[in-house]
Structure prediction request, 446 residues.
Amino acid sequence: MDHHAPIRKSTVGARPSPWIDDELGEAFSQRNMLKVLAAKSKSEIDEHNYRTLRNYAVKLNRREKKLFFNNAFIDCKNDSKKVWNTVKGLLGTSISSCPSSVEVDGRIITKPVDIANHFADFFTKKINLLSNNVNIHSSRQAIVQCIDDHIMSNKICSFSLQTVSVEEVLNLLKSLPDGKSTGYDLMDNLLLRCAAPQIAVPLRYIFNWSLEKGMFANVWKHAKLCPISKDCKEPATPANSRPISLLPTLSKILEGIVSRQIWEYMENNDLITANQHAYRKNHSTTTALVDMTDQWLNAMDNGKFVGVLFLDFSAAFDLVDHEIILTKLMHYGFKEVALNWVQSYLTDRKQSTYINGSFSSPHALNCGIPQGSCLGPLLYLIYTNDLSYALAETQATIFADDTTIYAAGQSVQQVQQALQGDLENIREWVCQNKLVLNTKKTKVML
Prediction:
């Protein structure tokens, strides 16, 4: 890519507002000319003409701007990303704001690479601190007990990875979307899509070699981490930023192939718990809310009290233990090559934080599943799939890492006892699976 399409820097001037057409542009030009003329002549007539045209230009600008955004909202009403980008354009807020300087140990650092290293150190230490504070008391038998007794009981099924055809790879390359940020390898979707007919065959060979040997390329394990400020009006700091992980596009294509095969296996064999509403066909946050509120209202109609506990896990995706997820996959019927592929996919990963055109030094990731990946969310669902079977007196509705348990009873005391009992069961499950329950964000509602 560097030989055929090297990256070059160019200076791009500010673009005019998209609603400025020829009529409005001409009005602005005439206004500016009259302003200069009035300032030179000091004539009341010239001043009057300037103010008249100025007011006309202001009204015309407001009208065209309103019309532009009305049409923009109509065009993107079914695309939430476009809607929010349009809102940000209307409000004049930027999507992200990288700091030009930060204070570290009483001194100000301004070099982008030093700032990137400071952010990278913070993100790594945060995960390591949580990981080191996990209350570990787990045994392999306890971890897989629910899977063997409930999910896989009376089921004979197994999963093996299947190779792909050139046509499938070609279609995936041609369907790559525009406007996506590049990963650490700086490989742009547009270039891959344009080169699809030429690279589909060698990519198919690489993908199938990976699937047959159970190995994932190390070059695709390097993530580009972009800190995004949680407050768009303030520059990002390590504490108030959300790290967005960007992976190589070719990595995500192979992940997507594997993810679809695993989904098909899990769904066809009814292995995903029914109360999980994330990432599944015909499931969403809406179905999760309808499921919960319907049960609550039915209980209240029958004169019962309803208690709800909203659980929050700290850095759930980042704390997934590799040994535990592989153990669970084995009990779900994954064959040796498939297990080796997942192990290779999860291990030896690293990430570099990217700020103002500079990368930090690479930081190794010893646990967790890749953020920003196609396969990561599915692996997390499998990792927590047995959580609801740890409950004895309550029911659960789950959306990814958001878990809500609830109980109904004839008295508040009965509801309280049910919630407290299963909260202890969840704490036990959390300890076994090396996760962390965020008690500060866990809320209760009666």
About this structure: The chain has two domains: 22-91, 112-445. Residues 34 and 341 are 71 Å apart (CA to CA). The chain has 14 helices and eleven strands. The mean pLDDT is 89.
